[in-house]
Amino acid sequence: MSGQTLYDKLWNQHLVKQRDDGTALIYIDRQLLHEVTSPQAFEGLRLAKRKPWRLDANLATPDHNVPTTLKERAEGNSGIKDPVSLIQVQTLDDNCVEYGIEEFKINDPRQGIVHVVGPEQGATLPGMTVVCGDSHTATHGAFGALAHGIGTSEVEHVLATQCLLAQKMKNMQVRVEGELGLGVTAKDVVLAIIGEIGTAGGTGYAIEFAGSAIASLSMEGRMTVCNMAIEAGARVGLIAVDDTTIDYLAERPFAPTAEQWEAAVADWRQLVSDDDATFDKVVTLKAEDIEPQVSWGTSPEMVTGISGQVPDPQAALDETVQRSHTRALEYMGLHANQKITDIKLDKVFIGSCTNSRIEDLREAAKVAQGNKVADTIKLAMVVPGSGLVKRQAEAEGLDKIFIDAGFEWREPGCSMCLAMNADKLGAGEHCASTSNRNFEGRQGYGGRTHLVSPAMAAAAAIAGHFVDVRSLSANDATHAQEA
Amino acid sequence: MKKFTRFEGVVAPLDRANVDTDLIIPKQFLKSIKRTGFGVNLFDELRYLDEGQPGQDCSNRPLNPDFMLNQPRYKGAEVLLARRNFGCGSSREHAPWALEDFGFKVVIAPSFADIFYNNAFKNGILLITLSEEEVDRLFVGVDANEGYQLDIDLENQRVITPGGEILEFEVDAFRKHCLLNGLDDIGITLQDEDAIRAFEQKHKDARPWLFRQPA
Fold first, then answer.
1. Alpha carbon distance B41, B29 (integer Å)
2. The domain spanning residue A217 has which CATH number?
3. Strands across the sheet with A30-33, in order?
4. InterPro entries from the entry (chain B) (predicted)?
5. Within the 232-251 window of chain A, which residues sit less than 8 Å (CB to CB) from chain B?
6. What's the confidence (pLDDT) of residue A477?
7. What are residue A209's DSSP bridge partners?
8. How far out from the chain centre does Cα A233 lie?
9. Of B177, B186, B211, the CB nearest to A157
């Protein structure tokens, strides 16, 4: 019999009951809650007169709706000008108080995007099952945790039963072998993977990311890769536990201590796929082939390298693809064969659960340092992923670098990734964004999103159009603008 | 949840691949704390020519005449015919809530995104996966015949076209059972309460750090 994959091990460790009809009951160790997908779940509990099964498995924070200017945030919840958003955030607060669930409220320094907060607190641990009513829950798989997004009915199901009804997924391994070039980041790796396998390539699978290039990534980088597993169609992204994982977790508030730490680490070391494990599908990419990526269309698979160009829809073999590409170019206001470096930007957004951690901000700051945002850019904003990331960045002086360069330095939240708060694109505006989705209208009605890494976003802000971040040392960006 | 019974319904075609949940229901409508009322904003950006706001009266908004749901021939549609990877993107259950509130009971496509698939069934919506060729043929049929209806027979797992062609489909036994009987799956899970408690204790003994709270 062949060995087990990491996913197989996590599944088996949480299997409460396998039913004859193919479904299984899986025990959930951690549920993260935010204001958008939880109110109807709590309402469902109340209507059915049910109580949460295990309060301490839940951790809540508002993130999607919160304003990001200091002025608004100074007023707490009352700084939320949109009355509908305010009700939603207030409802989360009320529900957490009513049921006794721990919540990092709007101005708690620990507040932030759920997928930044969980790992930062050590509330996400290797070997856990982690769920949240948000598709980017795949992020937590970077720790060797079985983590995926769920709908609101499932949020209610987990609150009431501490379990989820699930069917086992298939196993896919995506290997990235070799050494990443200078200026090529985790974001470029995952965008290249999505470009390769497509947005439905991982449907029905749990993807384990492996290979030397993945192992060389920091935890921040690994979270960026797993975060976008869902954009490749897979609910679950996973990376095996190693020293990088364990070093990151030591002394986090929710992490075990003393003797329990030693026992936990010994257990976590087992969270790797066995050498003789079999995968239903294996995809391999060469790290050397990956260049900084830019999405040109309205689906994350519509992506290419910075040296590339917008494709000609007529060149697509499949008629459905031809029509999708034609529609995408029309929406994006681009033309076939246009060079990526010729795409001019109106706004720049550095943030989101994909790229708002300290390392992301450092990479962007390195490019921004000593430069100025181009005059043609209407708004360039940096939105840290949590209050603690913000504090750390300020301790390192990154805020000053951004502000001096002409970026706005904001308060933590999801912000313009999905534009549920006031941060959004106007119709027709092009945005270099470190977020995860470039769907029509995602960042604002008629807005045009280009997905990139933090360094590429910063370089684009300075040049006013896309530039190859590898071609500039930090101070050259201004010359690119003048050229 | 209502029981899912056999019916014949008008088919509305959405000829577009990778329809994401942002397109099904844009984010501004996610601010509601209710489960109902999303139907008027289903496909908001395709359906109307202006930008919609939550709580707005939609009866006076300019309609996009090219969008199929605004065409009289698809009025009262209960079956949505779509292309591959339908429902990709975010986990928002507001997407099936909007489809259901509008009146759709069934979506037929060559493939669906995983999270949407779960969410739809939990709201009584049947998702039917057919081959690309079968879906192509249905698009041709819908286009050629005004008032085109399909007979949806979940019990026997088949779709019957007006011409009498029978298209069989797969659906897992548990989801089918829940739909046909209108069952709430929390109630079903709680029948296993003892098994869950026993597992929880064993799990806690083996890995106590998973149950630890910060100091």
1. 8
2. 3.30.499.10
3. A102-103, A58-60, A30-33, A129-132, A146-149
4. 3-IsopropMal_deHydase_ssu, Aconitase/3IPM_dehydase_swvl, AconitaseA/IPMdHydase_ssu_swvl, IPMI_Swivel, LeuD
5. 233-235
6. 46
7. A174
8. 14
9. B186
> How far does the CA of residue A256 sit from the closest CA of chain B (Å)?
6
**Mean pLDDT, all residues of chain A:** 96
SS3 A176: strand
Residues 100-159 on A with a CB inside 8 Å of B are 121-122, 125, 127-128, 133-135, 137, 148-154, 156-157
Helix H or strand E segment including B107: strand B106-109
pLDDT digits (tens, 9 = 90+) for B23-55: 999 999 999 999 999 999 999 999 999 999 999
Of B89, B96, B193, the CB nearest to A437: B89
Task: Give the per-residue pLDDT at A437.
Answer: 98
Domain boundaries of chain B, sorted by first residue: 7-18+76-211
Rounded CA-CA distance A221/A186 in Å is: 5
Using a 10 angstrom Cβ sphere, with 0-12 exposed, 13-18 middle and 19 or more buried, the burial of residue B195 is middle
CATH class of this structure's domain B7-18+76-211:
alpha beta
* A115: its two tokens: 């997928």
CA–CA separation, A468 vs A340, rounded Å? Answer: 10
Considering its fold, how many domains does chain A have in total?
2
Q: Are A102 and A60 in contact (CB under 8 A)?
A: yes
Q: How confident is the model at residue B212 (pLDDT cuts 50, 70, 90)?
A: confident
- Based on the domain organization, do A312 and A390 belong to the same domain? yes
Assess whether A244 and A308 both reside in one domain.
Answer: no
| Residue A104 belongs to domain spanning | 1-291
pLDDT band at A480 (very low <50, low <70, confident <90, very high): very low
Do A255 and A121 lie in one domain? The reply is yes
Residues A173 and A309 occupy one common structural domain: no
